[in-house]
Amino acid sequence: MIRFDNVSKKYPGQTRAALRNVTLDIDTGEFVFLVGRSGSGKSTFVRLVLRELRPTRGAVLVDGRDTSGLPAWRVPKLRRQIGTVFQDFRLLPGKTVRENVAFALQVTGYSRRDIRTLVPASLEMVGLADKQDRLTDELSGGEQQRVAIARAVVNRPKILIADEPTGNLDPTTSVGIMKVLDRINRLGTTVVMATHDSTIVDQLRKRVIELDDGDLVRDQGKGTYGYQA
Ligand SMILES: Nc1ncnc2c1ncn2[C@@H]1O[C@H](COP(=O)(O)OP(=O)(O)OP(=O)(O)O)[C@@H](O)[C@H]1O
After folding, report:
1. What is the pLDDT of residues 206-225, one digit of tens each?
2. What is the ipTM of this complex?
3. How many angstroms from the chain centroid is the CA of residue 74?
4. Which residues form the ABC transporter domain (predicted)?
5. Using CA positions, which residue lies closest to atom 3 of ligand 1?
């Protein structure tokens, strides 16, 4: 589903590459933790998958397609296959839970009928079926992150990328978020989660990919966090 083939990325004006010769394959349906110290290249990795960046060398393939060669008009279609969730939720203020999730579908031209079935189904999956008419500003952090997850997967993307999704949440709330991500993964979505949360990584024992200063230094099945922050 995601393939990095000898990928290097150097930002303009930088002497050191942010990623160096990274080769890996993430199969359909996998759950992968992406770990590494601050500045090790995790966000660069994520941005390459989303084709916000192009590799300086090598190729990034998403669902079999080399993203470098994609013309600009095909990029939105690529991104629709990839749901994204961030540490800071990024919800629309002043709107309800339902409106936040529906918005993602409205802007991509879904019919009202599809929106009426997809939005409640997605909110049900994250455990917010009873909060659809609440303003997101009035929800707890954990609930807001659930809304963001519902929005990310409402169009049933093949891949979900979560960049520090528990970074602003307390440990108990984080466990709830991980249950939701696990449920989405079990339904067939490939999940890549960049995280500094060692407790979660050590508890869930999924595949762990570690970056260190731009190098892929570990790719471990049923892995642990594995380093001291
Ligand atoms: N837009 C940019 N221009 C120049 N250098 C950048 C840019 N973005 C990131 N970098 C550099 O690339 C390297 C990797 O950064 P990246 O943001 O991918 O790390 P990260 O692992 O996501 O860090 P964090 O855990 O703090 O989010 C760092 O040295 C960073 O300073």
Report:
1. 999 999 999 999 999 999 99
2. 0.96
3. 20
4. 2-229
5. 11
Predicted pLDDT of residue 229: 61
15 lines ligand 1 (CB under 6 A): no
What 3-state class would DSSP assign to 213? coil
Q: What is the dihedral of CA 21, 70, 149, 30, to 10 degrees?
A: -50
Task: Tell me the pLDDT tens digit for each residue of 148-158.
Answer: 999 999 999 99
Give CA separation, 107 vs 84, 101, 102, 224, in Å.
16, 11, 9, 39
Token code pair at residue 86: 């961030």
Helix (H, G, I), strand (E, B) or coil at 52: coil
- With bands split at pLDDT 50, 70 and 90, how would you rate the model's confidence at 227? confident
Identify which of 34, 42, 164 to mutate to test ligand 1's pocket (most ligand atoms within 8 A of the CB).
Answer: 42
**195 phi, psi to nearest 5 deg:** -155, 155
Measure 35 CA to ligand 1 centroid, in angstroms: 14
CA-nearest residue, atom 5 of ligand 1: 11
Q: Rounded to two decimals, what is the model's pTM?
A: 0.95
67 touches ligand 1 (CB under 6 Å): no
Residue 105: partners with Cβ closer than 8 Å, 6 or more residues away: 114, 115, 118, 119, 154, 155
The CA 18 to ligand 1 mean position distance, Å, reads 6
Ligand 1 close to Cβ of residue 227 (< 6 A): no
